[in-house]
Amino acid sequence: MELIDASSLLSRLELERINVGRERWEGLIPLIEPHIGDQIIAFNDAHIAMVLSKLDMENIDGKGNLAYLHAKNISNFVGDKQNIGENAIIMRDFGEKLCSSINLFNKEKYDQAFDDLYSIKSQFSRLSGSHAQKDIFTQFLVCAGLHSQDKDRNKKALDVLQERGAKMKDSALALRLVKRYEEGLFSKR
């Protein structure tokens, strides 16, 4: 749970344009490293992806890039037809794409991140975690769309934000995001 809370908090702050510093992300590596190959819960893998995609680095032993290793482990897990539980189904249906999308977002490949997240947004509810915990994925989706230079993606992102606002009345976050978009701050990252 510490990993989930910390990675989500750091991501939320960075989505709000607050640079939390590399050392905070690096501080989560000891929590992540033992779980790179677990693939027990897609929700956890998505949070691991949040951290690893912020750090293009090798692990402590220099055995390779942890983000690459995590993605490879997910791919192997999804490809192994002997994995038949609920998490295997979720990872095959959309979990692998969710993790990849977070990586794309953190590499500033906003159009592709938006397209991938938009294609799976209706699946977010299948993840474990509370509504508030899962909202981080909607925030990645919206911010990716607002960062795009494509007006159609911008409109879709604003529509998603409006849908979110219908569920979360008087959302200060929604108001801030719309204001930042209207002021052109997403294109000036």
Number of domains: 1
Mind summarizing the main beta sheet? none
Helix content: 55-70%
- How many individual β-strands? 0
Rg result? 16 Å
Structural class: mainly alpha
The dominant shape is: globular
What is the residue-mean pLDDT, rounded to a whole number? 91
Strand content: under 5%
Number of helices: 10
Low-pLDDT segments, ≥5 res = none
> What distance lies between the first and last C-alpha atoms, to the nearest angstrom?
31 Å
Question: How would you portray this structure in words?
Answer:
The structure is a single chain. By secondary structure, the chain is mainly α. The chain has one domain. It has ten helices and no strands. α7 (110-120) packs across α8 (131-147). It starts with a helix and ends in a 7-residue tail after the last helix. The relative contact order is 0.10.
Key terms:
single chain; 10 helices; mainly alpha; 189 residues; globular
Summarize the helices and strands and which ones pair or pack:
Elements: H1 2-15, H2 22-26, H3 29-32, H4 42-52, H5 66-79, H6 86-106, H7 110-120, H8 131-147, H9 151-167, H10 172-182
